[in-house]
Amino acid sequence: MATPRTLFDKIWQSHLVDVQEDGSCLIYIDRHLVHEVTSPQAFEGLKLAGRKVRRPDLTLAVADHNVPTSDRSKGIADEESRIQVETLEKNVKDFGVPYFPVLDVRQGIVHIIGPEQGFTLPGMTIVCGDSHTATHGAFGSLAFGIGTSEVEHVLATQTLPQAPAKNMRITVEGKVPEGVTSKDVILAIIGKIGTAGGTGHVVEFAGEAIREMSMESRMTVCNMTIEGGARAGMIAPDETTFAYLKGRPMAPKGGEWELAVEYWKTLPSDEGARYDKEVVLKAEDIIPQVTWGTSPQDVVPVTGHTPDPAAESDPGKKASIERSLAYMGLAPNTPMTEVKIDKVFIGSCTNGRIEDIRAAAAIAKGRKVADSVYAMVVPGSGLVKEQAEQEGLDVILKEAGFDWREPGCSMCLAMNADKLEPGERCASTSNRNFQGRQGPGGRTHLVSPSMAAAAAVTGHLSDVRALAN
Amino acid sequence: MEKFTQLRGTAAPMDMINIDTDMIIPKQYLKTIKRTGLGKHAFAEMRYNEDGSEKPDFVLNKPQYRNAQVIVAEDNFGCGSSREHAPWALLDFGIKCVISTSFADIFYNNCFKNGILPIQVTHEQLRELMDDAGKGSNAVLEIDLENQTIGRPNGESVSFEIDPHRKHCLINGLDDIGQTLQQASKIDSFEEQRKAATPWA
Ligand code: SF4
């Protein structure tokens, strides 16, 4: 009998183009997403070497990091941002790469549009010059972020030299309690394994709580795998996956669809497959989460409080807690629900999908954003925005006092005009609370969309379970 | 890509865990369309005050470390964003080697593409090297990639592990793309076979 294989093993083995004597592997890449920030130097490299893009048909480009989220029919005011977007536009033209222009309704965050278009499919290898490429693993693909030199390598050869990863399985058993979202699940996982807990591994998420999640929720979980240090996160494809993909513009059609589904059903890990590392969590123990510090692992239940460095014996960790608290402007042992906020950001590739906007609107409905708070909602793509507007979610949010914006990365990393001022504190549905991530000196608390909306209407971090109707 | 064989240089101690790529090069400097010129912005938020003046306490601003070529840092160096601007900024500053107990995967890969050697050592070794790096103008380490050793100021040496393929490429300054293109016929036949097996892909 053949050795039982994991989902990762199956995808890896079916993509090996070459294995050298020293064990180094060359793998084939099925899909390559390109954005404006990490690609200019790669295209420049191709030009200098007189090389072409090997498979423009397997490549899709979009500008997302730099684009303004206000009316953009007038173009981009910031000169450097504009040059970067124009450079991408020139490069896709010169190399014949498919591109969604800034004013196209399909434009949006690269990790939102791939799945939305059916560009992302199970069993594939998918790369992008962006660490949150892990998002696409929600479809049972092997998706990981790469650097610009690797972007150039994929453009030129449609392959990548890669070392095999180890297998890790994170199982979330049972059902999540009311008011707890996929964002809370992944934050709780990172809190448990730490930001380097997955280094060198590809994580497969499993268990009832994961299986019961929608595709949107699964994407949120896989998106933040990188915050746990793993190379990629993935979830076995199932009926939920197929139902999401069916009829998407770039998904297979007709007879090919049937063939594809048949193949996708062979992908889930075999019974008895071996994992190098296993972690198990109980869904029922998970409470809405919020970060207090400057690393995604600095996370506590919203019912908890900031840590006390005095209680930490390891000097390195103690110093790190002290540094984080000082940066965040928080005293030790502060209850999280006492932390007042200035801004709320709902969006990003972690939580910029329709389900996230619905969750925020459900809390916002009939309430008002606190006077001291500025709250913004940035849909992940033009299509998400359109759908939300069809459902009337924009009206609910606007009536509550939220600012309804155009799609893009926005205040997830503040490369456009949306940013925190020094010392400002934000409840954010994004994925990184690093120092200065949302603007120099800005302070970020990572939360789920409903928790972000709860913070917006109360003016401080709040337990959404008390507000849910 | 420049070859990496040996390096004799000042090592700067950065006694912190989780030095992420946002710290190494903040996003406001990612708008460049070039690979060069980022050295002056490396560690910008730790290195400069808001008015642009230097923070004298930051290690790379201290006279003895201004020309550092090696960084010695705690766990999980280079975590976070995939930006290759991080190794570009380090290289442009003059850093050719980073020593830590662990590295984030993407950053680790990116180093090799740019001729930077990331060296992983044990916690005990790191403590010793961190002490060495704390010796100011005497904080000189001798890195020998061929023999996989780090020579310490006291004459002792620490050996390290490295993937043989990556070592080979670094020592010879080999360009990955050129090497892969030599396998073009294998890529062609892989594509044909895949087209037959999974036509929708
Ligand atoms: S939304 Fe944030 S994390 Fe996602 S791709 Fe954009 S900048 Fe990166």
From TrEMBL, chain A:
<comment type="subunit">
    <text>Heterodimer of LeuC and LeuD.</text>
</comment>
<dbReference type="InterPro" id="IPR015931">
    <property type="entry name" value="Acnase/IPM_dHydase_lsu_aba_1/3"/>
</dbReference>
<keyword id="KW-0432">Leucine biosynthesis</keyword>
<dbReference type="GO" id="GO:0051539">
    <property type="term" value="F:4 iron, 4 sulfur cluster binding"/>
</dbReference>
<keyword id="KW-0456">Lyase</keyword>
<dbReference type="InterPro" id="IPR001030">
    <property type="entry name" value="Acoase/IPM_deHydtase_lsu_aba"/>
</dbReference>
<keyword id="KW-0100">Branched-chain amino acid biosynthesis</keyword>
<feature type="binding site">
    <location>
        <position position="409"/>
    </location>
    <ligand>
        <name>[4Fe-4S] cluster</name>
    </ligand>
</feature>
<comment type="similarity">
    <text>Belongs to the aconitase/IPM isomerase family. LeuC type 1 subfamily.</text>
</comment>
<feature type="binding site">
    <location>
        <position position="412"/>
    </location>
    <ligand>
        <name>[4Fe-4S] cluster</name>
    </ligand>
</feature>
<comment type="function">
    <text>Catalyzes the isomerization between 2-isopropylmalate and 3-isopropylmalate, via the formation of 2-isopropylmaleate.</text>
</comment>
<feature type="domain" description="Aconitase/3-isopropylmalate dehydratase large subunit alpha/beta/alpha">
    <location>
        <begin position="9"/>
        <end position="459"/>
    </location>
</feature>
<dbReference type="InterPro" id="IPR050067">
    <property type="entry name" value="IPM_dehydratase_rel_enz"/>
</dbReference>
<dbReference type="InterPro" id="IPR033941">
    <property type="entry name" value="IPMI_cat"/>
</dbReference>
<dbReference type="Pfam" id="PF00330">
    <property type="entry name" value="Aconitase"/>
</dbReference>
<keyword id="KW-0028">Amino-acid biosynthesis</keyword>
<comment type="pathway">
    <text>Amino-acid biosynthesis; L-leucine biosynthesis; L-leucine from 3-methyl-2-oxobutanoate: step 2/4.</text>
</comment>
<feature type="binding site">
    <location>
        <position position="349"/>
    </location>
    <ligand>
        <name>[4Fe-4S] cluster</name>
    </ligand>
</feature>
<feature type="region of interest" description="Disordered">
    <location>
        <begin position="294"/>
        <end position="317"/>
    </location>
</feature>
<dbReference type="InterPro" id="IPR004430">
    <property type="entry name" value="3-IsopropMal_deHydase_lsu"/>
</dbReference>
<dbReference type="InterPro" id="IPR018136">
    <property type="entry name" value="Aconitase_4Fe-4S_BS"/>
</dbReference>
<keyword id="KW-0411">Iron-sulfur</keyword>
From TrEMBL, chain B:
<dbReference type="GO" id="GO:0009098">
    <property type="term" value="P:L-leucine biosynthetic process"/>
</dbReference>
<dbReference type="InterPro" id="IPR050075">
    <property type="entry name" value="LeuD"/>
</dbReference>
<feature type="domain" description="Aconitase A/isopropylmalate dehydratase small subunit swivel">
    <location>
        <begin position="1"/>
        <end position="122"/>
    </location>
</feature>
<dbReference type="InterPro" id="IPR000573">
    <property type="entry name" value="AconitaseA/IPMdHydase_ssu_swvl"/>
</dbReference>
<dbReference type="InterPro" id="IPR033940">
    <property type="entry name" value="IPMI_Swivel"/>
</dbReference>
<keyword id="KW-0100">Branched-chain amino acid biosynthesis</keyword>
<dbReference type="GO" id="GO:0003861">
    <property type="term" value="F:3-isopropylmalate dehydratase activity"/>
</dbReference>
<dbReference type="Pfam" id="PF00694">
    <property type="entry name" value="Aconitase_C"/>
</dbReference>
<keyword id="KW-0028">Amino-acid biosynthesis</keyword>
<dbReference type="GO" id="GO:0009316">
    <property type="term" value="C:3-isopropylmalate dehydratase complex"/>
</dbReference>
<comment type="similarity">
    <text>Belongs to the LeuD family. LeuD type 1 subfamily.</text>
</comment>
<dbReference type="InterPro" id="IPR004431">
    <property type="entry name" value="3-IsopropMal_deHydase_ssu"/>
</dbReference>
<comment type="subunit">
    <text>Heterodimer of LeuC and LeuD.</text>
</comment>
<comment type="pathway">
    <text>Amino-acid biosynthesis; L-leucine biosynthesis; L-leucine from 3-methyl-2-oxobutanoate: step 2/4.</text>
</comment>
<keyword id="KW-0432">Leucine biosynthesis</keyword>
<protein>
    <recommendedName>
        <fullName>3-isopropylmalate dehydratase small subunit</fullName>
        <ecNumber>4.2.1.33</ecNumber>
    </recommendedName>
</protein>
<keyword id="KW-0456">Lyase</keyword>
<comment type="function">
    <text>Catalyzes the isomerization between 2-isopropylmalate and 3-isopropylmalate, via the formation of 2-isopropylmaleate.</text>
</comment>
<dbReference type="InterPro" id="IPR015928">
    <property type="entry name" value="Aconitase/3IPM_dehydase_swvl"/>
</dbReference>
